[in-house]
Amino acid sequence: EGHLVESGGGLVQTGGSLRLSCTFSKFNFDDYGIAWFRQAPGKEREGISCISRDDGHTSYTDSMRGRVTISSDDAWNTVYLQMNSLKPEDTAVYYCAAVTGSWYVANCLSPEVSMDYWGKGTLVTVSS
């Protein structure tokens, strides 16, 4: 458990869409969540969205709300991040991460919460 691999990044034009995938080794319990973060050059890492394995609850950061959708496949092997209406300022390395524990899952985008496992990231470049 805890091994996460991102894919789906690449070059896209302004206004375009991408779907990122996060494939991960299964946990032996349901009390976890998967989150997406991004880090642009010269900027701090930013939480985007997360989803709870236990009840499917989703959270989104205000900066990308309405342009991204997080979802999972039925088997909970993969979590997706659908991104639409992309802008040059969305250019960043996108990471998925896993967090365990109900309180941490419920507050997964809080700066107080540290993720337990991280993927290595996938680069998204949005051209103007």
List keywords for this structure.
four-stranded antiparallel sheet; seven-stranded mixed sheet; 11 strands; 128 residues
Q: Could you walk me through the main structural features you see in this protein, from its secondary elements to its overall organization?
A:
- The chain has one helix and eleven strands, in the order E-E-E-E-E-E-E-E-E-H-E-E.
- It is mainly beta and about 130 residues long.
- The strands form two sheets. Strands 2, 4, 5, 6, 9, 10 and 11 form a seven-stranded mixed β-sheet that branches. A four-stranded antiparallel β-sheet has the order 1-3-8-7, with no helix packed on it.
- A hairpin with a 5-residue loop joins strand 5 and strand 6.
- The longest helix is centred in the C-terminal third of the chain and has 5 residues.
- The protein starts with a strand and ends with a strand.
Tally of individual helices: 1
Low-confidence stretches: none
Q: Beta-strand level of the residues, as a percent range?
A: over 45%
Separation of the first and last Cα atoms: 39 Å
H/E element sequence: EEEEEEEEEHEE
Radius of gyration: 14 Å
Structural class: mainly beta
The profile of the biggest β sheet is: 7 strands, mixed
**DSSP strand tally:** 11
Question: How confident overall, as mean pLDDT?
Answer: 94
Fraction of helical residues: under 10%
Q: Please tell me what the overall shape is.
A: globular
